[in-house]
Design goal:
heterodimer, A: 519 residues, four-stranded antiparallel sheet, B: 850 residues, alpha+beta, five-stranded mixed sheet, 9 helices, RNA binding (chain B), rRNA processing (chain B), WD repeat (chain B), Quino_amine_DH_bsu (chain B), transcription (chain B)
């Protein structure tokens, strides 16, 4: 005597995002801390030394935040106009910032008043950076020039006037004190050597350049401008390596994860995308509330800081390992479960006598009814509100089972207005779902057959039937369009397919377009 | 063609055991059932088949315990004989020749020396009318008795044994046919007839399907086509009879049975639920649901403790007083039902396959199951539930059927296709992939692909190579595509393990692919599209070449193996067998034959082709490289053979005769039109089997214990010794188990027993004697010089003899047996014999050591 076999509820593949290692890694951040600044946040820079404070440049101020503080630990306010590009020196002691009023200011992190003021630019300075020898400053300005300054003497060392438009990004080499790279709105990025007066390399990005990034090895350079992120190989004389177009608005900022394996790009389209640096595929995506202007990653990816146009600074901290474990641990410590597992891990000793007890088969409500051949009740049980809404595959599986037993008609017949309207609303919700359609169409046809005679007696049912008709018409139109598109694509593929020696009609991988569209 | 006398086609196991009602013996230890041309005796506790009562030359149609001797059983057969057997020993006692085919047999304790049988009315086989006749069995000492004195009791009865039953104490007999119930009273020699209308108001069918009579009361229970059970009373009046109706079954009641005391009535039908009705309190019912398949017969043991039900899937279930299934005797499930349903001749069922791991034959079994049938042991190993759905027993309901199955080369993967076709809805197809689980030693569902193709799947095969890392499955379908499925490692952490996904979809000019086949080294895939064979490279999915030999669509495709792997063979619908050479991509040879099935032996170059000619099937075995067939056999069976398989042998044969060499590595099994499993054997193999079966006669009364195994080994040795002495072979030596010593040893509580060291010697000695007994007999025939020797040792052994009671006991037994063999022994001789037995310990020790 075999036991009752419960209804098989098929597990459908989950639609949408798949969980990968990257997803797990980048999702392992706490809820963001949001801080309101005074204006759009144009730059965020992490101090290279512990405790890794970060400087946030917004409007006329630069705030310095500690790694876990929600209040600024330090504020620089001595700017006449909008400040730009507050950056730390490699020892974390000094901070440089440009300003709308064309003056470059150098601050001691401990002090309040500027140590040095570098005057020379004629327009707003958007780019400032320290060279790797720590005694010079690179600046780039809207007056199309970039300059090198000596910190001890506060004098201008050199002026480079090669760009023909605003210079909005620049970066100095960490390995060579004389090398720096600037990007400009004239679509070019230029590599300069301080030992000569001219640029040594020039590359055309094609769009106004917003951000630059050097790999730690400094063999590869990443530039962002327009919707494109481009990777250049400096060792091959500035050969373009890849061009990525994953954003649909201007990319504003670039960052590299701590191990150099992942590249992050932030854009005005409110997304931060994470690329793998091996194949340059997007592996993860963050959504933010507003257009993003600046982005920075703390060392070891401890936190992600994003500044947006709506002057909100969003800080996400990584969950500590204990914290991420705690969640699963809490579930295990629930008392009801402990009662459940009591004695589960008891290992029988040698002379223990095992009394085997038949395992009781627990059946779902609808299965209990099916076992008793109560078909209508089984369908009612499966159509309970929380099952119907949360897992629609259960009612569908029960309908399929009833159909298999040849008793679906009996189960659907003899319902009052309320029951029928519940059934119809379920059908309307799921009829056009590709996974359920074959089963539900049969049920819908049966309902129409059974209740044809009583049409017009209940306004509720009539309204639902009209809605269903409407839904089906729209679906048919939609399918028609899809078939048209498929036909167009087929002709395109046929013309683009190279002629093979052996005549062989459409051969496609299963993940090819034709299959996808058939679905 | 040369007739090969030493290779014959033999029936291989899987005979039908649900044909007639089984019989449980009085002591409830054995169950007897008719099975083909023999009667099988099963043990009710171990489910093992103990004897085959062989002797009938045609289908056995009934088994009945002899009312006057409960250790004997009658069996009747179409061959026109009734035979009387002693079922405990499996000996034929008597054969009564009736002279015309017998369809069923009845007897009652009140009718001494008379049996009632159903025979055709006119005495010839073709007749549709049957009569119940009484046969007086003549008392004579002969084995073969002619008893042609038949006296008719009732005419125009049904040939179905369930339609006739003896009433209380054998006073009357009830017979039902169609819409008529006849009751014949023996005392009055008068019969009453009651008839029903064809169908009642509600449209139910009133035809009688079975009859049972209450053993203590005047009551007849009848089952009807619409599921009703009627209880008839007062049937000794023409007019004033009454009946009451019970209704639970929704389809025809196929079997009814009263328990011996008459307290309960059992009924069963297609619902596969055993219903137990209380007699006189019919509203109280007990159910035993989900017995697996439709119930065809119900039988109750004479003491009422055991019920047994036969099911339509060739199964007998033994139930302990309607609560617990205690044993299941399962035969090879026949799928005749399926063949009947598909009218276009295309059988909806899996090929015969051999599981590479267990070497079991795999084919369709119960609905929605695959059965694993061990060819070596002729036993059903297990049923694998493929569909995993509650089976609804209802006539006319479309069920999921397993239509295709395939194993990969190592047996770690099993692919199955199940189908369900409904009139209104589309075809439902599921492709399931099962992984072998080492821990549970069974297949576990890995991936279910619903709707893998848009139409029916026509063929499916795994990539053969065992060394390749990836397993691949290719399926072809009527929708014009063939798809390659591959085991993909999990790309996402969410998924638990690897699962199967589609790797490639191929088409060829929109033609419908029919068969697919991988070459022996898996470097090539051949897919036939109607008349064209396309050859693909499975690594790059390039179309390498196309081969075609019109007219006629390709029916079968097969790559050669081993040295012939450069050949690709195909059969076409237009009676052509083609062999292509893949190196030159040209036709090597072709011949005109109507081949219904072509298959390759995986272990040799040989190929087997079944040809259908004039209603018979011929077999040809050939090598693709040689023009002459290795072996041919005309008319292996009637009808076409559509399923066959080469099963690898456990042990290679070393036959060197040319025509039987092809059977050395593997054995060819095939299914006939009537779903009989047949095979080919050589003469040498038959002889060996006969020899081994003689050795394996085991007394059933012995329980299987470690002791038994130990002692059983002994007995074998004895028998081997015994063989040369034919004069003693008939004598039964008592088994050592029955000796007092061992009984004492096993039954006394351990704390009362003396030390083990003491017992050990005693125990071993008790074993020795039984052999001595034998050797003693042998000694009789030996020369006198040995006796001389033994006399010297007599004194020591005397002492030993006194010390052990056990020994003397045992000796006494053996003396008895010796006396049986030679009753003329005098007392002096006995004493001498006894003395002899004491003496040859040294000889015995040597024997034991060896």
């Amino acid at each position: 005597m075999a036991s009752f076999k419960p209804t098989n509820i098929p597990v459908y593949p989950k639609l949408g995002e798949k969980v990968t290692q990257d997803t797990l890694y980048w999702k392992n951040y706490k809820a963001p801390v949001q801080i309101k600044e005074f204006g759009a946040i144009t730059n965020i820079d992490f101090s290279p030394v512990t405790p890794h404070n970060f400087a946030v440049t917004a409007f006329t101020r630069i705030h310095i935040y500690g790694p876990f503080s929600q209040e600024p630990v330090k504020t620089f306010t001595r700017f006449k106009d909008t400040a730009y590009c507050g950056r730390f020196r490699s020892d974390g002691q000094l901070l440089v910032a440009g300003c709308e009023d064309s003056v470059v200011r150098l601050f001691d992190v401990g002090g309040k008043v500027a140590l040095r003021m570098f005057r020379g630019h004629t327009k707003a300075v958007h780019v400032t950076d320290f060279t790797s020898d720590r005694y010079q400053i690179l600046t780039g300005s809207d007056d199309y020039t970039c300059r090198l300054w000596d910190i001890p003497n506060a004098t201008e060392l050199n002026v480079y006037q090669e760009h023909t438009d605003y210079i909005r990004c620049g970066i100095t080499s960490k390995l060579n004190r004389d090398l720096f790279i600037t990007g400009s709105y004239d679509h070019t990025l230029k590599v300069f050597d301080a030992r000569v007066d001219k640029s040594v390399m020039s590359m055309d990005h094609g769009q106004p350049i917003e951000s630059l990034l050097l790999y730690p090895s400094e063999g590869l350079l990443v530039s962002a401008g327009g919707r494109y992120v481009k990777v250049w190989d400096l060792l091959k004389g500035g050969q373009p390596l890849v061009s990525l177009r994953n954003h649909h608005k201007t990319v504003t900022c670039l960052a590299l994860s701590s191990n150099g394996q992942r590249l992050l790009s932030a854009s005005l389209d409110r997304h931060v995308k994470v690329y793998s640096t091996t194949n340059y595929k997007v592996v993860h995506n963050f959504d933010y509330a507003a257009s993003i202007l600046s982005l920075a990653l703390a060392p070891d990816d401890e936190s992600i800081v994003v500044g947006m146009t709506n002057s909100i600074l969003s800080i996400k901290h990584r969950k500590s390992p204990e914290e991420s474990r705690e969640i699963s641990g809490q579930q295990r410590r629930r008392p009801s479960y402990r009662v459940f597992v009591k004695g589960k891990n008891y290992v029988p000793k040698q002379d223990d006598y095992l009394v085997s007890k038949p395992v009781k088969q627990y059946l779902a409500k609808y299965d209990k009814q099916l076992k008793k051949f109560n078909v209508s009740k089984a369908l009612d049980c499966a159509l309970e509100k929380w099952i119907r809404l949360r897992n629609p595959e259960v009612p569908v599986a029960v309908i399929k089972e009833l159909d298999r037993r040849g008793t679906l008609k009996n189960a659907l017949a003899g319902r009052d207005e309320q029951q029928l309207s519940r059934l119809l609303s379920f059908l309307i919700g799921n009829l056009v779902d590709m996974r359920f359609a074959p089963v539900l169409v049969v049920a819908a046809e049966m309902i129409l057959d059974i209740y044809r005679s009583i049409l017009g007696q209940s306004p509720v049912i009539d309204r639902q039937l009209l809605r269903m008709q409407d839904l089906l018409e729209r679906e048919i139109d939609y399918q028609k369009e899809l078939v048209e598109v498929l036909g167009m694509l087929d002709t395109m593929f046929a013309s683009s397919l190279p002629k093979m020696e052996v005549p062989c009609s459409s051969v496609s991988r299963s993940n090819g377009l034709s299959i996808l569209i058939q679905v | 063609m040369v007739e090969h006398g030493d290779i014959r086609v033999v029936h291989r196991g899987g005979s039908k055991i649900d044909f007639r009602q089984p019989v449980i013996t009085n002591d409830s230890r054995f169950l007897l059932c008719a099975s083909g041309e023999c009667v099988k005796v099963f043990s009710t506790s171990t489910e093992e088949c103990i004897h085959d009562l062989q002797g009938h030359t045609d289908l056995v149609t009934g088994v009945l315990l002899r009312p006057s001797n409960h250790l004997q059983v009658y069996s009747c057969s179409i061959d026109g004989t009734v035979r009387l057997w002693d079922f405990t020993d499996g000996i034929l006692i008597k054969t009564y020749v009736i002279g015309c085919p017998v369809y069923s047999i009845y007897a009652s304790a009140n009718h001494e020396g008379v049996i009632f049988i159903v025979v055709p009315m006119l005495g010839d086989k073709r007749s549709e009318l049957f009569q119940l006749v009484a046969v007086h069995l003549p008392q004579s000492g002969d084995q073969l008795v002619e008893s042609r004195e038949l006296s008719a009791v009732l005419s125009n009865v049904s040939s179905n044994p369930a339609d006739i039953a003896f009433g209380r104490g054998g006073e009357y007999i009830a017979s039902a046919k169609g819409l008529q119930l006849k009751v014949f009273f023996f005392k009055k020699q008068k019969s009453y007839e009651f008839s029903l209308k064809e169908d009642n108001k509600k449209g139910g069918l009133n035809t009688f399907t079975c009859v049972a009579c209450h053993p203590k009361d005047d009551c007849i229970a009848t089952g009807h086509g619409d599921g009703k059970i009627r209880l008839w009373r007062n049937f000794n009046h023409k007019k004033e009879y009454t009946y009451s109706t019970l209704h639970w079954h929704h389809n025809a009641v196929s079997s009814l049975c009263f328990t011996p005391e008459g307290t309960n009535l059992l009924s069963g039908g297609v619902e596969s639920v055993l219903v137990q009705w209380r007699y006189n309190q019919e509203s109280q019912r007990d159910f035993l649901p989900r017995l697996g398949a439709a119930i065809t017969h119900i039988a109750v043991s004479p003491d009422g403790a055991l019920f047994c039900t036969s099911h339509s899937d060739n199964k007998i279930t033994i139930i302990q007083s309607c609560v617990k299934v205690s044993a299941v005797i399962q035969g090879l499930v026949k799928v005749l039902r399926l063949m009947a349903r598909t009218k276009e001749g295309e059988s909806v069922q899996t090929d015969l396959i051999v599981d590479p791991r267990s070497k079991a034959l795999v084919l369709n079994g119960k609905p929605g199951h695959l059965q694993f049938y061990s060819l070596q042991r002729d036993k059903l190993l297990y049923n694998l539930d493929i569909v995993q759905q509650e089976y609804i027993h209802e006539l006319g309901l479309e069920q999921f059927e397993v239509v295709k199955a395939a194993f990969d080369a190592s047996g770690t993967w099993l692919a199955t296709v199940e189908e369900r076709k409904q009139k209104s809805a589309e075809l439902e197809v599921n492709l399931k992939l099962w992984a072998f689980d080492e821990q549970t030693q069974s297949f576990v569902l890995n991936t279910t692909i619903s709707a893998p193709h848009e139409a029916r799947i026509t063929a499916m095969c795994f990539r053969q190579a065992t060394d390749s890392q990836t397993t691949m499955l290719v399926s072809t379908s009527k929708d014009g595509h063939f798809k390659a499925w591959q085991l993909a490692t999990p790309a996402h952490t969410e998924d638990e393990g690897p699962s199967w996904s589609c790797d490639f979809v191929g088409t060829y000019h929109g033609l419908v692919p029919e068969c697919c086949c991988f070459s022996a080294d898996s470097s090539l895939l051949a897919v036939s599209f109607q008349e064209v064979v396309t050859v693909w490279s499975p690594t790059s999915w390039e179309l390498l070449t196309t081969l075609s030999q019109p007219p006629g669509a390709i029916r079968d495709l097969c790559f050669g193996r081993l040295s012939c792997s450069k050949y690709l063979l195909g059969t076409t619908a237009k009676n052509l067998l083609c062999c292509w050479n893949l190196l030159t991509c040209s036709l090597e040879w072709s011949t005109s034959m109507d081949i219904s099935l072509l298959l390759a032996d995986p272990l040799s170059e040989n190929m087997a082709a079944f040809c259908c000619q004039a209603g018979c099937t011929d077999l040809f075995v050939f090598k693709p490289s040689e023009p002459r067939p290795l072996f041919s056999h005309k008319a292996v069976c009637s009808g076409t053979v559509t399923r066959a398989v080469f099963a690898p042998r456990e042990k290679m044969l070393d036959s060197c005769e040319e025509n039987s060499q092809w059977l050395n590595r593997s054995q060819l099994h095939f299914l006939t039109q009537y779903m009989d499993l047949m095979t080919f054997t050589t003469k040498a193999e038959d002889d060996r089997l006969m020899a081994s079966s003689k050795q394996l006669v085991i007394d059933d009364s012995v329980a299987m214990t470690p002791f038994y195994l130990l002692l059983g080994k002994h007995r074998h040795q004895q028998q081997e010794n015994q063989d040369p002495m034919s004069s003693l072979s008939a004598e039964r030596t008592p088994l050592p188990q029955s000796s007092v010593a061992i009984k004492e040893l096993l039954q006394t509580p351990a704390h009362v027993l003396p030390s083990t060291s003491f017992l050990c010697s005693m125990f071993v000695q008790s074993l020795l004697i039984s052999v001595t007994d034998l050797s003693g007999c042998r000694e009789n025939n030996k020369k006198a010089e040995e006796e001389m020797e033994s006399e010297k040792e007599e004194e020591d052994s005397e002492q030993e003899m006194e010390s052990s009671i056990v020994r003397s006991e045992q000796a006494a037994v053996s003396v008895q047996s010796a006396e049986c063999a030679a009753p003329a022994l005098t007392k002096a001789q006995v004493r001498e014999l006894r003395r002899l037995k004491k003496l040859d310990h040294s000889w015995l020790a040597g024997l034991l050591d060896s």
